[in-house]
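Justification of computing resources. Each target in the renewal requires a structure prediction run like the one illustrated here; the chain below, 337 residues long, is used simply to show the kind of job we budget for.
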Amino acid sequence: MDSVDIEVLRTAEGWRKSGQRVALGTIVRTWGSAPRPIGAMVAIRGDGQIVGSVSGGCVEDDLVDKIKTRAVAASKPELVVYGITNAEATRWGLPCGGTLEIVIEPLDQKSGIEELLKRIGAQQLVKRRLDMDSGRATLEPGRWQDVLEFDGRILSAVHGPRWRLVLIGAGQLTRYLTEMARMLDYHVVVVDPREEYAAGWDLPGVPIDRGMPDDIVRELNLDGHSALVALTHDPKLDDLALMEALKSAAFYVGAIGSKKNNDARRERLKEFDVSAEEIARLRGPVGLYIGSKTPPEIALAILAEMTAVRHGVSEPSWAAKPERRFDPSACEVKTPT
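Resulting structure tokens:
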């Protein structure tokens, strides 16, 4: 669930609590070239104010009219379908053959949005089950492999962070990475056993784990929805985490540092129980090459590369990492707290 949809939920609940009539729309099925993915949401107020999108503007005007006139979802959830035929798809401005099925539900106390937002805010993955007959929603813990399901009677949707990012080290760069990653649907885990760094870590909602990196990584059981980036510049900590992460199913494993330092790291990893194929998965220097110098720019480069890997996009030629000497200005400098 991305930050846009969380904002839709927040806005919708704020409207409801202020006494406004609100309907929430969720895409449950698409065919053809649908503009928005399954799970995308829109909230529409009784007076026509809208937040979010289910079609990039193609059907929103019609949905607003339906909500304002109470033509749909006046008292309980309903299914609305757009673009069954090519002619209808053209009428609604959908791509050729595109079809959308959207569940529209009127929000009230039994919708459970307030509690859902509390759990999302606590970085929990939550499954929300909506009964189409009663309009009542129930919440239960979600799983990483859960997906949206709709059988005509029950809509099960997963909310909260769908991806995990493990950061080794709690310095300045970690703060920027954490804040950016949370906007991109990541549950962030920060690991740093060093007292001097742990004492200065105070980012709300993101606790620091003081255990040894290799132990924590094993306990986390990294899967295909997980990424790890080592940021301490301390081989005793970074290498321990990388040894475990490279043997896991994590979709992305990276390490900060120059090419020279990462080449040396690869040589060290050969001395442990890490195969050549596993070592080849290491992305170091980490991040797309965009000339990054400052910690925020480096964080941006790392998350850009992670996003490309998530979506199966090959590294563009302009982002290829050049052969260059170590630049100390790109290193993180610890500031006293």
